[in-house]
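Aim 2 progress update. The chain analyzed this quarter is reproduced below.
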Amino acid sequence: MKQTLLTKLERLAERRSEIERELSSPAVIGDQEKFRRLSQEYAQLGPLVEHFGDYQAVLKELDNLQLMANDADRDLRAMADAERPAAEGKRAALEDKLKGFLVPKDPLDNNNVFLEIRGAAGGDEAAIFAGDLHRMYVKYAETRGWTVEVVSES
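Predicted structure tokens:
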């Protein structure tokens, strides 16, 4: 992974630690708006920091495996060679996840949606299709953990 990405990840991990300290401050606890905003940012950084910690552990494991591979003991070298592919696979998977976390969020991601489904020309078949489409969207929203509220139905 590029050094610039690692630097960015380290800054985000430091930011989460800073937010954690701020959240324990009595002044922040008294300001509900600031507390809410910091809590949301803290929660958003949580998975990223967790994966970054795992990534750093895998890098340390790979360094240890390299030391083992250079050892004079033949069995130790064989063990290092056997464990290296799994560690490399974990490293690659974690790099992909971390790169996904660094993609900028859409500012509209947290907004609500109003969706209108109407049965068009076609009579009963169109109404049946509209009902199926409604159930599909409701199930999709439930799997994502979103709240669905039917405002009007006929």
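DSSP finds five helices and no strands in the chain. Residues 57 and 127 are 55 Å apart (CA to CA). These observations will guide the mutagenesis experiments scheduled for the next reporting period.
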